[in-house]
Amino acid sequence: GAGVSQSPSNKVTEKGKDVELRCDPISGHTALYWYRQSLGQGLEFLIYFQGNSAPDKSGLPSDRFSAERTGGSVSTLTIQRTQQEDSAVYLCASSLIAGALSGANVLTFGAGSRLTVL
Amino acid sequence: AQSVTQLDSHVSVSEGTPVLLRCNYSSSYSPSLFWYVQHPNKGLQLLLKYTSAATLVKGINGFEAEFKKSETSFHLTKPSAHMSDAAEYFCVVSDRTGNTGKLIFGQGTTLQVKP
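Output (structure tokens, whole complex):
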């Protein structure tokens, strides 16, 4: 697609429920990243995919968080048994390739999915 | 490990006056540095990037930044602020450990532009 598409744009859920957030990267981009932006905070790295594998998932805050990517394209971030502290904007980004030594790797971000846990 | 510190959480300027948003970085590598802008209810947009070429980097909308290795700084400037520049600005360093391209964000600086 022309840009990174995320859905839903807004999600309100009750504490304890599971949620799924979807990211559709730019066509042909092999690297995909998930970040979280909490109110008044900078962006926090969660996980990154190269193709369908996740070489770095060091930012996932707990085992309630998981993500997968299929077909080298769409990715889903799943949060199980949501807690109020999970409320944030979840941002997805993609890039043509990951970590080019030239530093030319540029991430294109989606508009984000705003999650509110009541 | 790489890190980024944005020295001001909030900057207020008058329209038509210069803008200076300060950023210091820490990196054990020759870093790649970026500035991103986030307008209200909009996605993050790349303003400019430094990738070990020219130390003075020009970006979109009249912004530029200068990489100063001796000062470990990458401050963002603009000669004359417009109302449309009001937004959140993030200084970012690329984590090249393992060559993942993972980005490390500063806490952000909110730019207010007064008429």
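The mean pLDDT of chain B is 90.
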